[in-house]
Write a structure and sequence with these properties.
Beta-ureidopropionase (chains A, B); homodimer; Nitrilase/N-carbamoyl-D-aminoacid amidohydrolase; 17 strands; five-stranded mixed β-sheet; beta-ureidopropionase activity (chains A, B); C-N_Hydrolase (chains A, B); alpha/beta
């Protein structure tokens, strides 16, 4: 039944009177949503192609020496287009067409950086534990079909595109990775970064397909700021978010695929906590819809075999370093979330809260070293009266 | 104006119809509040002494080998009782009386562990940067007035008490610390633990009074489970929460003193994120009210001198490892929040989500070591076209 809810924000707006809604939004989001007006032609194009389109802004203070560093970021969440029983090429082409439409909207709206959802080129088929045909969606990060496809869009709109795909690494024994490709505004590939933490929870059987990433915590210095990508389950690990921050990220994208029954109470918390703790912008993207697979599978929960994982609840949002965030996109519909960031806010918040200055990295380097040793003895003080 | 709001929860309950409220609560809190009925005599006693009293429970699955490990935790939030201009002994006695009343309610309700707010024996006078008379509130952790006072209550009710105070360490040159004392259910002192991260934000001028804690991330093995204390500003540092988890904590208390205008959007996020990320219960406690000081002070924000820090917004809550949480106590009133935990939930969630298994501590030990080196070079990939 909860699947039918459009979004938390819509319920709040429907019932709570304006004055008290402001207080609720301040408590929940740090501020009332600061909407940005877009050109009506862009709105019309989103409507024609059936994308929800939302647009918000974050503010920084004016500085004397630095000009504002405005960046318009676009997040795309979407359902798969064709049934999972269609031929691979057909499924993929349909997704390319759909994402092309989304990028056209974002591009015309002046987006500087667009990030797509995790494994956007395919259904999230890892629940099945089957190999073919799903692994056929894997491709080279550097010159696979999706990279070539997006490269044209990046050049056309002069935008950076973050493209999370299933990677086939032919130069290392054909292994698979869960990878994000960073495409320059010029159309070239700046580099790639891999998912550092791989889930073993529920139907997220990804650990049988690919391993924990070996690319560290790279930050990509693009025309529009320093960006990083924390893929999906990596958002549960604060230390992962932290390392992107230590490497200088100003925006960290979290392309995801996650389910209502499993993770929805976690969703508004984790990326936002990361934005606060690390004084950067965090952009959380989740896919939408329910994907049906031809062969029924069980979920390790004693229940009967079934053909779907459950409902991907969308709800993509952007969180700022100052504790504010945007409302989420729909839980049900394809959508594009545009956010205007002033990257100067990151350093301003660092100076205000001092989290980097007070974080005592050396203490934790030592603590984690001990904790990861086989001889680790937890620091326990016993009640001697027991 | 927002100061006048009683709580977010009260607004939601007032306006949103029951069926949709359930959905809102599931999205915000992981579940509808699971209230626990208390004995009417306890309710009456809370009312007589003017404490809001709320009580909730968390569930774990039944196990074959382990019996449930039920613990009733009590959090106390309160205003100071007397004006800050009263004699120190008088202010302190009034607070002792008030806290005695709170513990009587919690004790009669069967609480096993009670945690008080940060520096509960005094006004939060560090905003003034004045020494006397405020530093007179400091005392020995082992045998100071408040420890002796609480020891009797601990023994009387057979409860563990966590007592956050301003510590005077006579054996190390009379220095001050921000410290929590852990008092056994027998009345003895199990040990103490100090605030690891000290703020330099707004009027939180604590860094001029005491230094970063030197007690590491101790976990106290009490009759009612393994507990730790992350004091106030330490909640902004996920790595601090993490180390308590690695040392085996099942409940981490976060006694705080924080202000609406500064931190309120952070409040519901940080302790809850910690509970999720570390598979333990996190208990966030904030003081209540506005404290007036005799001498006006400025706040480093260009505004005029004034006599108060702002509004401490209470809103104490408990978050579970499964993503659920209780509603918050009032933003305005003294209150006692009781929560029934089954500590078996911690290991059950660890087995479900696998965050400890997948956390790659060795990778982060190395990463933090490098990041804290003077020679650190962030891992940056440049767009060569720039």
């Amino acid at each position: 039944m909860t699947e039918e809810i459009e979004s938390l924000d819509k319920i709040l707006e429907k019932y709570i009177p304006a004055e008290e809604l402001k207080s609720v939004q301040r408590l929940l989001y740090g501020c009332s949503p600061r909407k940005v007006l877009l050109d009506p032609s862009v709105e019309a194009q989103a409507q024609e192609t059936n994308f929800e389109l939302a647009s918000y802004e974050f503010f920084a203070q004016k500085e004397d020496l630095r000009a504002p560093r405005h960046v318009r970021v676009g997040l795309v969440q979407n359902q798969i287009v064709q049934p999972t029983t269609s031929p691979v090429e057909s499924q993929r082409s349909a997704l390319f067409k759909r994402i092309g439409d989304a990028i056209d909207v974002a591009g015309k709206a002046g987006a500087n950086i667009v990030c797509l959802q995790e494994a956007w080129t395919m259904p999230f088929a890892f629940c099945t534990r089957e190999r073919l045909p799903w692994t056929e969606f894997a491709e080279s990060a550097e010159d696979g079909a999706s990279t070539k496809f997006l490269s044209n869009y990046a050049k056309k709109y002069g935008m950076v595109i973050v493209s999370p795909i299933l990677e086939r690494d032919e130069s290392h024994g054909d292994v698979l990775w869960n990878t994000a490709v960073i495409i320059s505004h010029t159309g070239g590939v700046i580099g790639k970064t891999r998912k550092n933490h791989v889930p073993r929870v529920g139907d997220f059987n990804e650990s049988t397909y690919y391993m924990e990433g070996n690319t560290g915590h790279r930050v990509f210095d693009t025309k529009f700021g320093k960006i990083a990508v924390n893929i999906c389950y990596g958002r549960h690990h604060p230390q992962n978010w932290m390392m992107y921050g230590l490497n200088g990220a100003e925006i960290v994208f979290n392309p995801s695929a996650t389910l209502g029954a499993l993770s929805e109470p976690f969703w508004p918390i984790e990326a936002r906590n990361a934005a606060m703790a690390n004084s950067y912008f965090a952009c959380a993207i989740n896919r939408v819809g329910t994907e049906m697979y031809p062969n029924a599978f069980t979920s390790g929960d004693g229940k009967e075999a079934h053909n779907d994982m459950g409902h991907f609840y969308g709800s993509s949002y952007v969180a700022g370093p100052d504790g504010s965030r945007t409302p989420g996109l729909s839980r049900l519909r394809d959508g594009i979330l545009l956010s205007d960031l002033d990257l100067n806010l990151c350093r301003q918040v660092k100076d205000k809260w001092g989290f980097r200055m007070t974080q005592r990295s050396d203490l934790y380097a030592q603590g984690l070293k001990e904790a990861s040793s086989l001889e680790f003895q937890p620091q326990i003080v016993k009640d001697e009266s027991l």
